[in-house]
Amino acid sequence: MKKSRLWGLIVIMMAVTLVFFACQTDPKSSNVYTDSVMDNITNNFGQDSSRELLVQWHKATNVSTQILQIVPEEGSFDDAKSITVTGVRWNPTRNPPAQSVGSYTPRNIFKAHVTDLNPGTRYKYRVGNAGDWSETFYHLTSGGANTNFSFTVVADPQDNVFDGMRVTLRAANEFDANNRFFLIAGDISDYPQENTLEFINYTKAANEFNVRRPIAATQGNHDTYINSNPENRDHYMFGSAEVFNSFVTFPENGWNQGSHHGPHRSKSYYFYYNNVLVIMLNTFATQNPTGPSEPNHTAQANWLRQILQHDRDNKLSKYTIVVTHIPFFAGRGSSNNNEPWLVAPTREAYGKILTDFDVDILFSGHDHVYARSNPIKIGTNPDLTNINFNPTANGTIFTIASSTGPKIYTFRNPEGTTNTFIPRSYPVRTDTQAPGVF
């Protein structure tokens, strides 16, 4: 039997915190890239969080190489290991011609992959070159064993200046000073094509937090390109993520890796933390090479099943967490005809896989409400028939993580239905003092 006692404790202990902050407007500033900014530093675990670290940053196009220096926290950078990285030129493109990434300026993107760290060890690191180093960042590798740890889940910052995210994540760190990482369930940005400062401002805000712990994110619909018709924002270019990939880093172990997909395709990935497998599933990835379409989940679903089967066959983890942007059950009636790519296709594509492999919990975003199901088994049901929503042995807890930013929606049942599958759903009003949730 699988961990029913533990998940009973987790259900009791799961904290949902509302943090109130004043909404602010976007400051007048330039999106021209200069060396004086924090260089858009983002970080993440590699596949093995006990030994790997990923760091990505930007520099001007005339800077061809950079160095990451890393050393145990008590050591000196004079004795640090140095990793030299060659930049990859990013010229924001129109590919296919109907899509645009906005007016981001060209720059070189650097990505360092550290692979030989020691488990359970605190490190410090910096990036740059002599005379032009970043501030010092810190990183704690996982113990790689069955030791307790905590983490923080957020979703949908969707802001322009990210003051709400700052306030909410500060509160999360005050609530639990020992949380090891943040998971963001998509929609970091609002509309990155129209508001080109969004991802730049996100990385500036994120540096307050990823200076001490990684932030692992998955792609949301607002992080995905839209087509050339600005009046129809729901026509997403599924699979396209040039800006998201340029400002967020992750291990290259998802299903759609390879040169034929290109560096700007939507991606999924996974990592191990102690005895937990964390899978960041991209509900906007598609196996179609280009073009506006509904997402084709087939290839990614096969990849997910293979990852879980390999994990089970080799007994690599004890618990499994999956993070998506699109939820498997609607929390605000969003499974309507205006968004046919949403809830039901996602549930149908991945539900049986989660059921077959006893995935413990799924965190999602998008609906900007907080909701949590019982542990349930759902199979491939495209609708809500034949699903037992009562607590089920080895079931999956389906959670919608609300919003970390200023946009909070009202919980409502899909038209003509009753949300019996979400026994604990919490509406939060929206006003000038919008709450953030972690």
Layout of secondary structure:
Elements: H1 4-13, E1 18-20, E2 42-45, E3 53-59, E4 65-72, E5 81-86, E6 88-90, E7 107-114, E8 122-129, E9 132-133, E10 137-140, E11 152-154, H2 163-175, E12 182-184, H3 198-210, E13 215-217, H4 242-247, E14 269-273, E15 276-280, H5 298-313, E16 319-323, H6 343-356, E17 361-364, E18 370-376, E19 396-401, E20 424-426, E21 435-437
Parallel strand pairs: 11-12, 12-13, 15-16, 16-17, 17-19
Antiparallel strand pairs: 1-21, 2-3, 3-7, 4-5, 4-8, 6-7, 8-9, 8-10, 14-15, 18-19, 18-20
Write up this protein:
- This protein has 438 residues and is an alpha+beta fold.
- It contains 6 helices and 21 strands.
- It has helices at 4-13, 163-175, 198-210, 242-247, 298-313, 343-356; strands at 18-20, 42-45, 53-59, 65-72, 81-86, 88-90, 107-114, 122-129, 132-133, 137-140, 152-154, 182-184, 215-217, 269-273, 276-280, 319-323, 361-364, 370-376, 396-401, 424-426, 435-437.
- A 7-stranded mixed sheet has the order 14-15-16-17-19-18-20, with no helix packed on it. Strands 4, 5, 8, 9 and 10 form a 5-stranded antiparallel sheet that branches. The chain has a 4-stranded antiparallel sheet with strand order 2-3-7-6.
- Strand 12 (182-184), helix 3 (198-210) and strand 13 form a beta-alpha-beta unit.
- Helix 2 (163-175) packs parallel to helix 3 (198-210).
- The longest helix is centred in the C-terminal third of the chain and has 16 residues, at 298-313.
- It starts with a helix and ends with a strand.
- Residues 20-33 and 414-418 have low confidence and may be disordered.
